[in-house]
Structures are given as C-alpha cells and as structure tokens.
Amino acid sequence: MPSKARIAVAIGCTAAVLLANTAFAQFRKNEDAVDYRQSAFTLMSNHMGRLAAMAKGEQPYDAEAAKQSARLIHVVSQLPWEAFVPGSDKDGARLKDDPWAKADEFRKLQERLAGETDKLVEASGDLDALRKQVGATGAACKACHDQFRKI
Ligand code: HEC
Questions:
Q1: Could you give the angle at the alpha carbon of 97 between the alpha carbons of 92 and 100, nearest 5°?
Q2: How far is ligand 1, taken at its centre, from the CA of residue 104, in Å?
Q3: What is the pLDDT of residue 7?
Q4: Tell me: the pLDDT tens digits for 125-140?
Q5: Residue 19 — pLDDT band, cuts 50, 70, 90?
Q6: Is the pLDDT of residue 9 over 80?
Q7: Is 95 in the pocket of ligand 1 (CB under 6 A)?
Q8: What atom in ligand 1 is closest to the CA of residue 110?
Q9: Could you tell me how far CA 119 lies from the centroid of its own chain?
Q10: 13 C-alpha vs ligand 1 centroid, how far in Å?
Q11: Using 50, 70 and 90 to split pLDDT, how confident is the model at 60?
C-alpha cells in the first residue's frame, strides 16, 4: 500500500474509534459516573458554605467572592445530572428514591435548583438579597435530598 493510502486508512480508523467512543464513553464505568456527580455536589456544597457564612455574618461579606461562588454554583449545578447513568446505583452511590423510575420528579427538582442558582448570581451583589437567596437555594438542595439522597 502506498504510504499516503496507509496514512488515510490509519486516520479513518482513528476517527471511527473516536466516534464510537463518544456515544457511550463519558464514563467508562458506573463508578466513574458516581465519582463525577459526587465531586460536582462537593464543589457546590463548599461554595454554598462560603455564601452561608457570609449570609450569617460568620465571614465578612465580600461582593466579589460572593459573585464568584454564586457563578460557580450556577455552572457546577448543571453537571451532576448526566452522571446519573442508569444502573449507577451502587459503587458508593447514596441514593434513597429511584431517580430513573421517578425521572420526571427528579428533573423538576433539577429545574428548581437551576432557577434558584440563576437568582443566586443576581442576589450575590447585595448582602440582604444574598441572605434570602442562600436560604431559597439551600431549600432547593434539601427538597431533592429529602427524596433522593441517602444520608
Ligand atoms: C435534583 C436533586 C438534587 C439537587 C437539586 C441537589 N442534590 Fe445534592 N445530591 C443528590 C443526590 C441524588 C445525591 C447522592 C448522589 C450519589 O451518592 O450518587 C446528592 C449528594 C450530595 C452531596 C454528597 C456528595 C458525596 O460526596 O457523597 C452533597 C455534598 C450535595 N449533594 C450537595 C448539594 C448541594 C449543596 C445542592 C444545592 C446547591 C444539591 N446537592 C442539590 C441530589 C440533588
């Protein structure tokens, strides 16, 4: 085979492998999906903690830091859901109710959080607004945990 043709075949094969992988390879194993979503939740929780500390006056209010945390929570709160791969209910997962059987309820609670984190970004520029919105956001976290998360 002329070398150019050989290179073309090699490129073709590589592309085929890459395409085949993208269909199902966001997570190689269920365990990776569980790690991924728990990591996203851990980050959100850390930044909710920072905002809560400012809201309660345990830390001085810093508008820039508050805005950064709120933006981060808003972005990271979009990440966990694709990692609820069907069947990933073991490997360290801590699930109470079944997010796949109750997919509609689970999705509504995600949408509630998305709405609240949107408002959190807005509210982060003002301490009084932040106080209220940290509470409302925390309530959206809790509503889902009460049903779906095993403590
Ligand atoms: C739509 C449902 C839902 C919402 C909303 C939600 N969570 Fe969770 N959260 C879960 C589920 C389900 C788990 C358990 C995941 C698992 O173990 O596989 C979890 C787990 C966690 C964990 C434990 C992670 C670990 O390492 O085990 C933390 C911390 C957490 N969530 C924080 C938050 C915070 C903070 C918010 C709001 C900003 C939030 N969650 C909003 C469903 C939700």
A1: 85
A2: 17
A3: 64
A4: 999 999 999 999 999 9
A5: low
A6: no
A7: yes
A8: 1
A9: 17
A10: 40
A11: very high
Distance of CA 38 from the midpoint of ligand 1 (Å)? 7
Note the pLDDT of residue 90. 96
With beta carbons less than 8 A apart as the criterion, state whether 84 and 37 touch. Answer: yes
Q: pTM, whole model, 2 decimals?
A: 0.87
> Across-strand partners of 149?
95
What's the confidence (pLDDT) of residue 65?
Answer: 98
Encode the chain in three state secondary structure: CCHHHHHHHHHHHHHHHHHHHHCCCCCCCHHHHHHHHHHHHHHHHHHHHHHHHHHCCCCCCCHHHHHHHHHHHHHHCCCHHHHCCCCCCCCCCCECCCCCCCHHHHHHHHHHHHHHHHHHHHHCCCHHHHHHHHHHHHHHHHHHHHHHECC
| Domains along the sequence of the chain with CATH | 29-148 (1.20.120.10)
Task: Note whether 85 and 33 are within 8 A (CB).
Answer: yes
